[in-house]
Specification:
Strand content of chain B: under 5%
Distance between the termini of chain B: 14 Å
Structural class of chain A: mainly alpha
Largest sheet of chain B: none
Number of domains of chain B: 1
Shape of chain A: globular
Number of helices of chain B: 7
Number of strands of chain B: 0
Number of strands of chain A: 0
Order of helices and strands of chain A: HHHHHHHH
Helix content of chain B: over 70%
Shape of chain B: globular
Distance between the termini of chain A: 23 Å
Strand content of chain A: under 5%
Number of helices of chain A: 8
Largest interface: A-B, 28 and 26 residues
Oligomer: heterodimer
Order of helices and strands of chain B: HHHHHHH
Structural class of chain B: mainly alpha
């Protein structure tokens, strides 16, 4: 199982390194979105709005990044893959891969965001990024499963957003709250119970993805 | 009418008749601001009970469908979700009307209210998903997987998150629920039968919808779900 996951992850990285345009496209997508925001807002003096906008940009970037997890492989290659690996190994490797991808995008996104919009209001950087790290696990689990569902349907791009947004909201609202605390430099103890909620949602969504994915791939 | 099988439908009628008469005419505690709107307890709150019951039925039959791929269970899951969402919409409308006369606004930024609205969004997405898949077996499976996800996240949203922050809603954020007003238990005597009555009515509507679906299947020449007609 562990070996399968490692090999599948290796396969994902290999594919990504061979098609650099897709990751470059995502980075450009981030930069363009932040640039549009800069043009529209000029500056964002209120930390609450700064924080919310950052997470909304990251939300859209994540949906774009994960939406194609099950679309890029052709149907025949999928069948071949499924004869080689167990569905559990496939979903775990996809979730880990998407998580790493989102983590990379958040770091780049944060840098671009601070650079273009000017000024970094975050007072507690370690809490901010601990929150990002924790949040991407649940984001990745939900988005990967929704991507698996929507890739089986006829209008997958609309459906990806429609299915994911409401499911992501509990997680998004909790992470926004923690990151607001990090921006205001509140004592980390204030955020502990919210971090606990995020961890709880991560466990729930992770278990659900793991259990339900085998039903999604067989035809 | 076969009383042995349909006694619960009769019970639903009796309970709801009692809800309407005693709910509107019975004694309620006189309170400032709340005044007569406290009677909304018999209509607004049971809608959510009915919705939760129906959505729970929907998830259970979704899981059953995942287990053996029987299309009968998928029809039940679909119709339970339809009826549950209708109950949820009624809950939103009755709540919104009540808020207009007590809080002075149709809608506020409140975790409990947002949770309810997002639940509706999740289930609308569920119907969009159903509509986007042609193949029957695949549709049932995808819908079942999504509804399990949806139900669990809904529990998180309306049970756990509202307790994390302040809320205007009665029973949350330090606001008294009806049990603080109902000192002589007169309201309880109407409320509990009302909950059961509305839940039973919801289930009844669901079974009617399932039978209609079975008849439509017969018209279209799918006879495998005949046994649903006698539900």
């Amino acid at each position: 199982m562990l070996k399968e996951i490692r090999l599948l992850l290796y396969k994902e990285f290999l594919l990504e390194s061979r098609q650099k345009q897709s990751i470059n496209g995502l980075v450009l997508y981030l930069i363009s979105t932040v640039f549009v925001c800069k043009m529209c807002f000029r500056t964002i003096p209120q930390p609450a709005a700064w924080n919310a906008l950052f997470w909304i940009i990251m939300l859209f970037a994540s949906i774009n990044a994960t939406g194609k997890s099950f679309l890029q492989d052709s149907r025949s290659r999928f069948l071949y893959l499924y004869t080689l690996a167990s569905p559990q190994a496939i979903i775990i490797s996809k979730v880990i891969y998407n998580m790493l991808l989102m983590l990379l995008l958040s770091v780049i996104g944060f840098a671009v965001y601070v650079l273009l919009l000017g000024g970094n209001p975050v007072q507690n950087m370690s809490l901010f990024f601990a929150n990002v790290l924790l949040g991407t696990i649940g984001f990745s689990a939900i988005l990967t499963t929704m991507s698996a569902i929507s890739s089986r349907t006829s209008n997958s791009f609309t459906l990806m957003a429609v299915l994911s947004f409401p499911l992501l909201l509990p997680l998004l609202m909790t992470t926004i709250k923690i990151s607001k605390n990090a921006i205001d430099g509140l004592d980390p103890s204030v955020s502990y119970r919210f971090l606990l909620v995020v961890a709880g949602i991560n466990v729930i969504t992770g278990v659900l993805s793991y259990l339900l994915f085998p039903y999604l791939w067989k035809d | 009418m076969n009383l042995k099988k349909n006694w619960w439908k009769l019970l639903a009628c009796i309970l709801l008749f009692n809800t309407v008469t005693n709910g509107f005419l019975g004694q309620v505690p006189a309170r400032e601001i709340l005044n007569e709107t406290i009677r909304n307890l018999y209509f607004h709150v049971p809608m959510w009970f009915a919705m939760m019951t129906l959505l729970f039925i929907s998830v259970i039959y979704g899981i059953k469908h995942l287990n053996n791929g029987n299309m009968k269970y998928d029809v039940i899951a679909r119709e339970a979700a339809h009826t549950g969402v209708a109950m949820g919409v009624l809950g939103l409308i009755t709540g919104s009307l009540w808020a207009r006369y007590t809080w002075g606004t149709w809608w506020t930024q409140d975790t409990k209210l947002n949770g309810a609205a997002i639940t509706m969004l999740i289930y609308f997405a569920y119907f969009i998903l159903r509509g986007s898949v042609e193949d029957e077996q695949k549709r049932g499976r995808l819908a079942a997987v999504y509804s399990i996800f949806a139900f669990v996240m809904m529990i998180v949203f309306i049970m756990i998150l509202p307790r994390m922050e302040d809320s205007l809603h009665p029973g949350n954020g330090g606001n008294p629920g009806f049990n603080k007003y109902d000192l002589d238990s007169k309201m309880r005597m109407v409320f509990y039968p009302a909950v059961l009555g509305w839940v039973l009515l919801g289930v009844w509507i669901m079974t009617v919808r399932i039978r209609i679906a079975a008849i439509e299947d017969t018209i279209h020449g799918l006879s495998s779900r005949q046994d649903l007609k006698t539900l």
